[in-house]
Amino acid sequence: MYALHRLWADPNGRYLTFNFQDNFVFEWFLTHATHVFTQGESPFFSDDVNSPLGVNLMANTSILTLALPLTPITLWLGTGVTFAIITTLALAGTAAAWYWVLTRDFGRSRLAAGVASAFLGFAPGMMSQTIGHPNIAGQYLVPFIVAAVLRMRQPGKVWRHGLVLAALVVAQAGINEELLFFTALTLAVFILAYVPWRELPGHARVMLPKCGVTLLVAGAVLAYPLYFQFTGPQSYHGLDQGVRSINLDVLSFVTFSRNSIVGDVAEAARLNRDNASEENSFFGWPLVLLLVAGAIALRRNRLIRALAITGFVFVVGSLGSVLRFDAVDRTGYHGPWYWISKLPLFDSIVPARLGLIVTVVVGIGLAHMIDRLVVDRMRPGAAPTEPVNPGNSGNSIKAPEPEPDPVLALVGSGPSSDGPSSDRPLGDGRLLVVEASVATPRRLAAPAPAPMRQRPLAAAVWGLAILAAILPLFPKPHHVSDRPALPALFTDGNWRTKLPPNPVVAPLPGGWNDNILMMRWSIETNFEVKLTAGYFLGPNDTVPEDKSAHFGPGVRETVAYLNRIRGDLTSPNVTAEARADMRADLKFWKATNIVMVVGYRNENVIRETIDKLVAPEVAPGRAVDGVWVWDVRAISGAG
Question: Is the pLDDT reported for residue 280 higher than 60?
Answer without folding.
Answer: yes
